[in-house]
Amino acid sequence: MNQKPLLLIIGNSNVGKSSITRLLMPNPRKFKGKIGKSPGSTLLIKPITQNSLPYKIVDLPGFGYVSHSSRRRGAHIKKQIVVHIEKHYEEYFFGLVVINILRIEDEIEKYYIQNKRTIPLSFELIQFLSEFKIPFLIIFNKIDKISNLNKKEKINLFIESAKEYGLDLIKLNDYSVEKNSEIPYLEFSALKKINIIKLKSIIQKSLNNFMKKCP
Ligand SMILES: Nc1nc2c(ncn2[C@@H]2O[C@H](COP(=O)(O)OP(=O)(O)O)[C@@H](O)[C@H]2O)c(=O)[nH]1
Ligand SMILES: [Mg+2]
C-alpha cells in the first residue's frame, strides 16, 4: 500500500475533534486547527498528516444540525458524509466518534425519551459506522468539566439508551479487538489529556491489525 491508511474523527462541532487531532500529531505546533472549515454547504474533506505519523486523519462534522435555520444544509452535509464513507470505507482503519459528555442528556431527552420514534444523532452515526465494519471508539470528551458522579450518570444513560437501538457499549479496558459485536468507549479530556495513552494505544493496535490484513 503506497497510501497511508485513514483515521476518521467524527462528531458535531465544538466537541473537541481538532483538539484530539492536535494531541495525535507528532508536531502539534505545525497543525493549524481551523482547516476543514467549509464554505457554504460543500464539505471539504482534506486528510491531514505529518511526516512521522503513519496515518492520515479525516475530520468530519457528524450528523448534527448547527441550528434550525440550517436544517437543509445539515441534510446536505450528511449526504456528503455518507457518499464519502461509502466510497472510502476500505481505506479507514479506525474511527473516533467524539461526543461532548455535557450534551448527552439533552440529546437523549429530546430524541429518545420524549419521542420514541426519533433516534438521537449519536446513535444514528454509530449505527451507520457499524454497517461499514470500520472499527471505532466512542470518546466521551470534556470529562474535566463534570464531577465523577455526574459523569457516571451520563455515561450510564447513554449506554442504557443505546441498548434500545441494539447497540452494545463496553469500556475500552474490557474490550478485545477480536470480539467485535461490542463497541468500546473511553472517558476522555483533550484539555487535561486524560486517557491519551489509552487512546494512542488502541489506535496503534488497530493500525497494526489493519496492516496485517493488507497485502
Ligand atoms: N474543558 C474542555 N474543553 C475542551 C476539551 N476539548 C476541547 N475543548 C474546547 O472545546 C472547544 C472546541 O474544541 P475543538 O477541538 O475546536 O472542537 P471541534 O469543533 O470538534 O474541532 C475549544 O474551545 C476547546 O478548547 C476538553 O476535553 N475539555
Ligand atoms: Mg474542528
Description:
By secondary structure, this protein is of the alpha/beta class. The chain has a single domain, classed as P-loop containing nucleotide triphosphate hydrolases (Rossmann fold). The protein contains six helices and six strands, in the order E-H-E-H-E-H-H-E-H-E-E-H. The chain has a six-stranded parallel β-sheet with strand order 2-1-3-4-6-5, with helices on both faces. Helix 1 links the parallel strand 1 (6-10) and strand 2 (56-60). The longest helix has 18 residues, at 71-88. The protein is globular, with a radius of gyration of 17 Å. Magnesium ion binds at residues 17-18, 33, 36.
List the helices and strands and how they pair.
Elements: E1 6-10, H1 17-24, E2 56-60, H2 71-88, E3 92-100, H3 104-113, H4 121-131, E4 136-141, H5 148-164, E5 169-171, E6 183-187, H6 196-213
Parallel strand pairs: 1-2, 1-3, 3-4, 4-6, 5-6
Helix pairs in contact: 3-5
The structure holds guanosine-5'-diphosphate and magnesium ion.
